[in-house]
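FORM 7B: Structural annotation worksheet

SECTION A. Query
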Amino acid sequence: AMMEELHMTHSQKRYLMDYVKRGDALPVQRFPPSGKQPVPASYTAACQPHKLPARPLLRPAKVCQAGDAYTREKFKPQPTRDLEKEKKRLQNILATGKDEVEDEVEQVLIQKKEEEVAEPDRFEELMNEIQERREFLADMEALGQGRKYQGIVLTEISQKLHEMEIIDKKRSEEMRKIMTKAFTVGNKSNL
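SECTION B. Predicted structure
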């Protein structure tokens, strides 16, 4: 109502409403003439691209030294070896004449050999991979995407089967060699 009493133009009303929408205080000065309306500062900052300074801004040395950048951490020495363990090792060497570390190395080597044997067979891995691909294809068919993945999955399965055939041939050749050696050794012992 006050705007209508002052006979404001449409652009002047918009100018004031922009201040109200942003939550800023209304301007104290008189309104500019309708043709020369200033653009609010927030609009000019948002519309203009961010300009970098012509040269980099350097901080004074006092500001840099005031921060934590120049403080060093205190050195806290830590024991490089366990003294109790060293004492027990020396006692063991003097008592038995052997170093406990050598026995531990042998035990570690034995454990590594057992772990190598316990590794899953490549043939078994291939069978598991084929089963996973079949399950994936079944899931995709259930979702209606079977045709999209069928060619890829069947190709991968055929590659896995080919690799399984190669492994099977190698195993059968090794078994033949072992059997022929055992058979020839067995015949010589009977002679």
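SECTION C. Observations
The chain has a mean pLDDT of 78. The chain has eight helices and no strands.

SECTION D. Sign-off
Analyst initials: ____
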